[in-house]
Design goal:
The protein is mainly α. It contains eleven helices and no strands. It starts with a helix and ends in a 5-residue tail after the last helix.
Length: 263
């Protein structure tokens, strides 16, 4: 299953990255005389209500979804890592402050918190990334804090401290390498929830602008024609399902790989 997940993710990501060269024509070109054309050899996924190629729009939509997901997970990874290390390694008031902030964020469902922030700030890709990052970093911070508190009591860290190793040395050589695998696995599963939230927000029209294709936006526009042209909703949902399934498969494989108790 890991190879299925890896190959699927890489294939969709590569198509999205090379989209301007693989599909050199403008996907925004309207051809109303061919609206709702069903899938054919010329247009694999058919045409939408404006006569635009649905397959091309899905691939361009992948660019936005993957960019937002990667950005949110990366930002949350870095912020959560820094704050989690500060809380877990140094403790005291720093720990209390960081965990209080994390508890406040975690008290809200991720989607709801991002929805509130976007409703206040307005729709844009930058605002979407900020809103999702703000609602995601706390999970990373709590995970890192708990693991650092556990690791700093291990013998190899205590020995490094006894031999005069600085806090930076202990963190760089002994604690961070033992955190990396755990954070990669957590980041993979967080990518699933972020992609679902991003698609949901775009479905509601609170993500990116309408001019930028997105999987959630395509599902939203296709629901009005679900009986007349079901392919407008079918293919974007299949792509979203396939990508989420692949992320789960890859996350499970990475968890097994980094599990020290695996057979």
């Amino acid at each position: 299953m890991k190879w299925f997940g890896l190959i699927t993710i890489c294939s969709i990501a590569l198509l999205a990255l090379l989209a301007p060269w693989v599909f050199p024509y403008d996907f925004n070109t309207l051809n109303l005389s061919q609206s709702f054309q069903m899938p054919s050899w010329t247009h694999f996924f058919g045409l939408d209500e404006n006569g635009q190629d649905l397959f091309v729009k899905i691939i361009y939509g992948a660019r936005l979804s993957l960019f937002v997901t990667f950005s949110v997970v990366s930002i949350s990874f870095i912020v959560g890592l820094i704050l989690g290390i500060l809380a877990g390694f140094f403790g005291s008031y720093v720990d209390m402050l960081v965990m209080a902030l994390a508890d406040i964020v975690l008290a809200f469902p991720k989607f709801l918190l991002a929805l509130i922030l976007l409703a206040m700030m307005g729709s844009s890709v930058g605002h979407l990334i900020f809103a999702l990052s703000f609602s995601t970093w706390a999970g990373f911070a709590r995970l890192v804090r708990g693991e650092v508190r556990h690791l700093k009591e291990k013998e190899f860290v205590l020995n490094a401290k006894a031999y005069g190793g600085s806090s930076f040395l202990q963190l760089r050589q002994h604690i961070f390498p033992n955190l990396l695998g755990l954070l990669v696995v957590h980041g993979m599963f967080q990518g699933v929830s972020v992609l679902i939230a991003e698609s949901g927000l775009n479905f509601l029209g609170l993500g990116s602008s309408l001019e930028i294709p997105s999987w959630g936006g395509l599902l939203s526009s296709g629901r009005a024609y679900i009986l007349e042209a079901p392919h407008l909703s079918l293919f974007p949902s299949l792509f979203l399902f396939l990508f989420l399934l692949s992320l789960n498969f890859l996350g499970e494989s990475l968890r097994d790989y980094f599990d020290p108790h695996r057979n």
